Amino acid sequence: MDYGALAHEIVENVGGKENIASLTHCATRLRFKLKDEGKADEAKVKATKGVITVIRNGGQFQVVIGNEVAKVYDEAVKITGIDGGSVDDDGEDADKPVDKDSLKVKGKALDVLIDLITHTITPMLPALIGSGMILACLMICTQAGLFTQDSGTYKVFYAIYTAVFSFMPVYLAYPAAKRFKCNPYIAVAVALTMVSTSVYTAATSDAGLYFLGCRIVMPGGGYGSAIIPTLVTIYFLSWVERFCNKFIHPVARNILTPLIELLVTVPLMFLVFGPIFSVLESGIGNAYTWLHDASSILTGFILGGAWQILVIFGLHWGIVPLNQVNLALYGRNTIAAIIGPSKWAQAGACLGVALKTKKADLKELSLSACFTAIFSISEPAVYGVTLKYKRPFYIATVASAICGAICGAANSAALGGGPVGILSFPLFIGEGFVAFVVAMVLAFVIAFVGTLLFGYSDEMAAEMGE
After folding, report:
1. How many CA atoms within 13 Å lie on the side-chain side of 360?
2. By C-alpha distance, which of 165, 170, 171, 161 is closest to 195?
């Protein structure tokens, strides 16, 4: 594939680089924020060879590419000069201020929430995936007796996992600061203070830790896995910075602004934002746990069946942070187990289409999407194959619901972070592990057989105009 040509055609059809306010990407999608969505020709973008589909959601014009999205993104950056949400003003427009309103998402609160999550958590995904797979490999090695948890080898590799999942505020702070338009390095300094071991040790000691006479109250595991408190704190930091830049004379601004930001934000984080929003975060996690405990089968059935539907509309980002909340609160995450079979159901449906079709290009796409879903990325399968022909998607959804209920009934859960795919099975070793494996395989088989028998034929596709 000529990634440069593909990127050029996409940029032209979204209204040209002048119409792009920001550009980022996730595992499978280019995420444009356009100044005027009316200038984008959605039909032409969809028809571009190499594009799977287009989604408008969360204030974004999302172009689904698949696994090669990073290469297309790099070419798009070269064409537009826009990288990771920052606008590069050159030439005659260099002195013109950036219209920050064009970078904001206007509309429903859910759209704003999804936009915030995708801009802050999405950049972290490579680190989350890599460290999650490190933990999976460690669990394989310890189960196989290659080394023990007391060995130096284990401790060095485990430090990679903890470097991510015990310091989440640091990873969140930088993209959050970019999103809220404040100094990212000041934000990182605040985040590093949040995860300070000396503060945590003193605050949780019998004597306690007091700041200006007020005791600092820490959540049980500290702020190492805090998501909501971090985002709220950095948002507040952005307001402090704007206040300072407005009222402090330029002569003293470079010195006084960072000083005031740190002096004001850090104490308020420990005394106000942290305690309040940690309770809120825990409440969200406890609410899900209550629902799961009340009817784990029903929870598994609904969430398992609905997951890929949520992915289609981008609504799954509203649930993604809950994975980390569960891990932080309970050390295990049942959501990962419940949604896991939905990926293999899509893979099974794609394999069914591949074996039924006589179209060489569809066979190639379906097989590629099948293997991609097995390794955890289901969007190429959904957008490129199953949703396009409808019946395979419906069959996969039923399989996902049934197998999600199995995982819910068995209380299956991941013990670490990371994507759910064939390489991450060791993360689920423990209670409900066998049921999880059975559910994953069964989801694949049900969707495969169902699609093979009832879900697809070239004649059906012809009737749909494909």
Report:
1. 0
2. 170
Q: Compute φ and ψ for 32, nearest 5 degrees.
A: -95, 140
Handedness of CA 315, 318, 319, 323 (dihedral sign): positive
Distance set, CA 310 to CA 165, 320, 378 (Å): 25, 11, 12
User: Taking a C-beta distance cutoff of 8 angstroms, is the pair 370, 347 a contact?
Assistant: yes
- How many angstroms separate the CA atoms of 260 and 189, rounded? 13
Spatial separation of the C-alpha atoms in residues 161 and 164, rounded to whole Å: 6
Neighbouring C-beta atoms of residue 171, cutoff 10 Å: 21
CB atoms under 10 Å from CB of 465, counted, come to 5
Q: Report CA torsion sign: 127, 132, 135, 137.
A: negative
Instruction: Assess contact for 221 and 168: CB atoms under 8 A.
Output: no
Task: Classify the C-alpha dihedral 176-180-186-191 as positive or negative.
Answer: negative
SS3 for 20? Answer: strand
Residue 453 has pLDDT above 80, yes or no: yes
Spell out the alpha helix ranges (H) of 144-249.
152-165, 168-180, 184-194, 197-203, 228-247
DSSP assigned state of 139: H
Q: pLDDT-derived band of residue 94, with 50, 70 and 90 as boundaries?
A: very low
Radius of gyration of the chain (CA): 24
Q: Hey, what are 282's tokens?
A: 């825990």
| 8 Å CB contact between 143 and 163 | no
In the structure, what pLDDT confidence band is assigned to residue 227 with cuts at 50, 70 and 90? confident
Q: Diameter of the chain by CA atoms? A: 76
Q: If we measure between CA atoms, which residue out of 102, 108, 107 comes closest to residue 34? A: 102
Task: Please state, in angstroms and rounded to a whole number, the distance separating the CA atoms of residues 451 and 345.
Answer: 10
Structure confidence at residue 222 as a pLDDT band (50, 70, 90): confident
At 451, phi and psi to the nearest 5? -70, -40
Q: 205: buried, middle or exposed (CB in 10 Å: 19+, 13-18, 0-12)?
A: exposed
Structure tokens at 33: 């924020």
| Total residue count of the chain as it appears in this document | 466
Six-digit token string for 244: 């300072």
Residue type, 248: I
What would the DSSP string read from start to end of 18-54? Answer: GGEEEEEE-SSEEEEEES-GGG--HHHHHHSTT--EE
Residue 382, helix vs strand vs coil:
helix
Q: Which backbone phi and psi does 446 adopt, to 5 degrees?
A: -60, -50
In the numeric block, which tokens belong to residue 48? Answer: 């571009």
SS3 401: helix
Q: How far apart are CA 148 and CA 157, in angstroms?
A: 12
